[in-house]
Amino acid sequence: MTIEYKGKSKVEQNQNPLELLAPAGNLEKLKFAIDYGADAVYLGGKSYGLRAFAGNFSREDMRAGVDYAHSRGRKVYITVNIFPHNEDLEGLEEYLKELQSIGVDAIIISDPGILRICKETVPEMEIHLSTQANCTNWRSAKFWKDQGINRIILARELSLAEIEQIHRMESNIEFETFVHGAMCISYSGRCLLSNYLANRDANRGECAHPCRWQYYLMERERPGEYLPITEDQEGTKIMSSKDLCMIRHIPELIDAGIKNFKIEGRMKSVHYVATVVRAYRKAINAYLSDPDNYSFKREWEEELKKASTRPFSTGFYFGSPDETDQEYTKEPRQSNRDFVGIVLNSQDGYLTIQQRNHFQIGDRIEIIGPNKTYGEFVINEIINSEGKKSQAAPHPKEVVTVPLNVDCEPNSLIRKILG
């Protein structure tokens, strides 16, 4: 039976606060996510998670990240969501006990065996069910709740109408969904393609992302003769989906019973994390401050486009994706901005900047902070780390000084305006 989502006649304000959950690929990204408005972050250790190549946390950085988050009233969730083989279970009990001693707020799992070990080893630990577990109906939600799951991250293949029905049938458990970021070509991320093409098991944390590779079509009787699928001379990305973006639909998400909004992107940059979190934070705050008179602002979506993303789609929320939700050619640039630096200090008419990408004298820039937008400026002088005037900041992450009389928040972002 197909269920049509029509929304409600009046948006009702949540009884409980909403949670904006951000990715953290390393300690720096964790701090930026929190500074720019995330209520919680999710991350992985060196083992047992599905992003083994995402710059995962050492135990020391994990402890530092938890301390940083907790000192600001935020939460940290750890991914333990691989589909383990027997050998993958070695050392898991000790790892879980260490997570508990560090003070993490919850762990994210997908495998029933790991769930059993969690309940036996760290029974007080809050447990969230990964989207990898493919929860797509209310009976499944009830099953997992009965096993002691505190929150269910629903499968991405659900429509808003289906989510609303699941919430109506099982309203006494938290539901989390992805609202922004890359979409996997395979069902809830369960994929064998990486295994076949790169001998790296996506279900054990080693995905090589072959769905983003470029491909050609070759007929069996014409070996070596590559037939174009589109007119792009570089091949085609026949399995590369557009990025999910639901910032236009905050009220509908809330009406469907979703209280935890998750951003994908542990392998993305500091700039991506900060920009996306900031935009969704503004939209969510605007809704919560006055739900009856809430209206979407186009500037929020325009900010998201500055984060070097693919074109946007609403995924499965309003029906199954079709051919328009795929990106078949080289991904077009959505933004005329380049992230070039981070403000370390603002004092006496000078900005101390850590360079992240090339910028030079004459460039136009814009500066944004966690809470403010500072406007556009022109770089007229650069003083390098040796105290000498320079045409540009020549080395990656070099700290330079630029005369600009603007009182910026620490960790403000600097973008170069292109064109």
UniProtKB/TrEMBL annotation:
GO terms for molecular function: peptidase activity. Gene3D superfamilies: Translation factors (2.40.30.10). Transmembrane segments: none annotated. Residues 336-415 form the Peptidase family U32 C-terminal domain. One of its GO terms (biological process) is proteolysis. InterPro entries: Peptidase_U32 (IPR001539), Peptidase_U32_C (IPR032525), RNA/ubiquinone_mod_enzymes (IPR051454). Keywords: Hydrolase, Protease. It holds the Pfam family Peptidase_U32_C. Belongs to the peptidase U32 family. This is Peptidase U32. It comes from Natranaerobius thermophilus (strain ATCC BAA-1301 / DSM 18059 / JW/NM-WN-LF).
